[in-house]
Amino acid sequence: MGIFKREKSNKENVQSKSENAADKPLDSNATDNPPASNATDKPSDSLLGQVEADAVGSVFPSALYYPHTREGRVYVIENAQETHLDPNECPLPPYPLRLGYGYDAKQGKWFDERFLKSGETVTNRMNAALSADGFSVPAGGRVLEIGCAAGRLTRWWLPRAQDVEVWGVDLRADAITWCQQYLAPMNFITNTTHPHLPFEDNHFDLVYAGSVWTHIGDLADSWYLETRRILKPGGRAFITIFDDHSMETCMTKGEGDVVSEIQKIDDSHGILSKNYGMVVEGTSLQRTRVIHRTEYIRRKLEAWFEVREIVPEAYGWQSALILRKR
Ligand SMILES: C[S@@+](CC[C@H](N)C(=O)[O-])C[C@H]1O[C@@H](n2cnc3c(N)ncnc32)[C@H](O)[C@@H]1O
């Protein structure tokens, strides 16, 4: 057993200050704010509070990520690892690491099957869109998910983990430690907010990120270029963003509080009437939200990639950019 307890059932559990509380307007896949804490999964709980506190106002909070609370001077990662090749059989992460996915706010309950299904749906949509673009990851190929958290999407690569080298990275060491323990034989590492990843040039066939650039305000361009560096020529990046289509869908179909959230930003900054290219709201690491005008991001990225497609509603209301490295 690793540092995190394996969840056996969908028993009552709660998540404290959820990262996804902030995600909600832009991540329609994620569910509503889980309730306030008496969570049993302490590591992530207290970590988030600490990271949040330390990250605010810090330009490079890159050394703040530990798989434990920062109160003690010693931490232990147990020598444990489980290997599964069936995404449905493999353990589910503890609730605090699920970032609200699979939580039903109205019922105040977590649903394991929703957590699983939501990840499978996004992964299937991505693979279908890539296939429509004439691309698939070959046997012997390499795939990287940036911002994988506790592997909600990555786990759907398990059936191919014998013939594809799969990697996941995230800023959250607590989630990455869990993935290392329970999602072997795939590979996971913690990265930082610096736009650098420890991989060689021209390394991956596919790099994807679901609802990550929707939270990267500073250094977003450098993250695109870092992604380009590690992609093989001809390889694809699949990156979801909140764009014109997302905004329109959100305003026409969105639930009341989602619309009012955007309305609030509009009231203070008048974004809806402005000819904006990119709107970054919030300065803290966990709570930044980024909205793009589709033509702005297309124009920018065309200088660096071949923009093959912008797929609407690829991830909830988020659209996905399919980028090809020339
Ligand atoms: C909304 S969650 C999505 C998690 C996962 N992609 C999914 O769909 O289940 C965003 C994740 O991106 C991570 N993240 C944000 N900026 C990042 C960066 N520069 N590098 C790696 N991970 C990042 C956050 O820590 C968080 O786990």
Rg of Cα set: 19 Å
* Hetero groups: S-adenosylmethionine
Please estimate the helix content: 25-40%
Low-confidence stretches: 1-26, 31-64
Task: Note the total helix count.
Answer: 8
What would you call the quaternary organization? single chain
What is the number of beta strands?
Answer: 11
Query: Approximately how much beta-strand content do the residues carry?
Result: 15-25%
Largest sheet: 7 strands, mixed
What characteristic shape results from the CA principal axes? globular
Give the H and E element order. Answer: HHEEHEEHEEHEHHEEHEE
Strands in their spatial order, largest beta sheet: 5-4-3-6-7-11-10
How would you describe the overall organization of this protein?
By secondary structure, the chain is an alpha/beta fold. The chain contains eight helices and eleven strands. The chain has helices at residues 19-23, 42-55, 112-132, 173-182, 220-230, 244-253, 256-269, 294-302; strands spanning 103-104, 109-110, 142-146, 165-170, 187-190, 204-209, 231-241, 278-281, 289-292, 306-315, 318-324. The strands form three sheets. It has a seven-stranded mixed sheet with strand order 5-4-3-6-7-11-10, with helices on both faces. It is globular. 44% of the residues are buried. The structure holds S-adenosylmethionine. Residues 23, 27, 99, 101, 146-149, 152-153, 169-172, 191, 193, 210-212, 215-216 line the site of S-adenosylmethionine.
Supply the key terms:
alpha/beta; binds S-adenosylmethionine; 7-stranded mixed beta sheet; 326 residues
Provide a compact summary of the structure:
The protein contains eight helices and eleven strands. It has 326 residues and is an alpha/beta fold. Bound molecules: S-adenosylmethionine.
